[in-house]
Design a protein that fits this description.
The complex is a heterodimer. In chain A, 34% of the residues are buried. In chain A, a hairpin with a 3-residue loop joins strand 4 and strand 5. Chain A is an all-beta fold. Chain A has no helices and ten strands. Chain B is 0% helix and 52% strand. In chain B, strands 2, 5, 6, 10, 11 and 12 form a six-stranded mixed β-sheet that branches. The chains are: A mainly beta, B mainly beta. The interface between A and B is medium-sized, with 26 and 24 residues.
Chain lengths: 114, 116
């Protein structure tokens, strides 16, 4: 079956602009995660959605970052007023259930802020 | 907070030989899961192997096996009969049973180079 998909694959933006990154999880997966991969910080957790529960936003680095998940499926990560330090690969993952199920990752979106 | 450490930034192996990647972690939990993920240049993280902490038997997946030492908090990955397609970044990851959000905590990664 289809895996996790993310769009766009690459995004170049100017400092101060807003960007939206999209994630389509594997069909039937109830849990969805966003991670950020950057040279300086490695791989870090951003946010987690499980069903209709309130999301775990504990990893979001600032209030410029937000995410939503509509209809328990597609998720959008929004970064407002982008800064150069936001440049990174943003990875989305999904799992059938939160635990102990394995997380399956998408190909990521490479964000470059000029 | 849990931390995961991969002390080898890069490892080189001859094709058909064996290479072992090290991973140590710190946790106060008794029950948890450990993973090795592979990330080729395509960026997509691919699960290599998974270990449940309550299982004493080391996990094995074809040419990939782990040496899980719970008391030492060590979780090394052995790649046997290395192939050119094994060249990638390898990440060790931890997930606690009670960890809020069941998030993965990753190590810094080890780049594996395979020489023909």
């Amino acid at each position: 079956g289809a895996g996790v998909s993310q769009s766009p694959s690459n995004k170049v933006t100017e400092k101060g602009k807003d960007v939206e990154l999209r994630c389509d999880p594997i069909s039937g997966h109830t849990a969805l995660y966003w991670y950020r991969q950057s040279l300086g910080q490695g791989l870090e957790f951003l946010i987690y959605f499980q069903g209709n529960s309130a999301p775990d936003k504990s990893g979001l680095p600032s209030d410029r970052f937000s995410a939503e998940r509509t209809g328990g499926s597609v998720s959008t990560l929004t970064i407002q007023r982008t800064q150069q330090e936001d440049s990174a690969v943003y990875l989305c993952a999904s799992s059938f259930s939160p635990s102990p199920d394995t997380q399956y990752f998408g190909p990521g979106t490479r964000l470059t802020v000029l | 907070a849990q931390t995961v450490t991969q002390s080898q930034p890069e490892m080189s192996v001859q094709e058909a030989e064996t290479v072992t990647l090290s991973c140590t972690y710190d946790t106060s939990e008794s029950d948890y899961y450990l993973f090795w993920y592979k990330q080729p240049p395509s960026r997509q993280m691919i699960l290599v192997i998974r270990q449940e902490a309550y299982k004493q038997q080391n996990a094995t997946e074809n040419r990939f096996s782990v040496n899980f030492q719970k008391a030492a908090k060590s979780f090394s990955l052995k790649i046997s009969d290395s192939q050119l397609g094994d060249a990638a970044m390898y990440f060790c990851a931890y997930r606690g049973i009670k960890a809020a959000g069941n998030k993965l905590t990753f190590g810094g990664g080890t780049r594996v180079l395979v020489k023909p």
